Amino acid sequence: MSNNCLFCKIVRREIPSEFLYEDDNFIVFKDIHPAAPVHLLLVPKKHVRSINDLKPEDETIISGLFMLAKDMAKDQGINTSGYKLLFNVEKGGGQEIFHIHLHLIGGWKKTAYI
After folding, report:
1. Which of 8, 78, 83, 84 could form a disulfide with 1 if both were Cys (CB 3.0 to 4.6 A apart)?
2. Is 47 a catalytic residue?
3. How are strands ordered across the β-sheet holding 102-106?
4. In the chain, which residues have pLDDT < 70?
5. How much is the pTM?
6. Which CATH number fits domain 6-106: 2.40.110.10, 3.40.50.2030, 2.40.240.10, 3.30.428.10?
């Protein structure tokens, strides 16, 4: 873990946060600036700065995030209506916190199309 990383501080409980899920490898909590009715952040406990910093041994982090996203979407009741999964990579890609994390975004009302 990194000493100055916001998400590492949350993992270490130095910054209070309400976890919707936690296991040995991941935490999940609500985004403080939600872009949708459901906007969760899925964060590995291991500090990896960015997608660009992944190593072969980190493959389980990515697969774990996707499997967790599927489960959290079901838990939040948006698995059948649909949702988005988003990684922001580096500043130009919108990454603001340099600790890899996956956004789970959804919960919009359906619009009828004619």
Report:
1. 8
2. no
3. 21-22, 26-30, 38-44, 102-106, 83-86
4. 1, 110-114
5. 0.92
6. 3.30.428.10
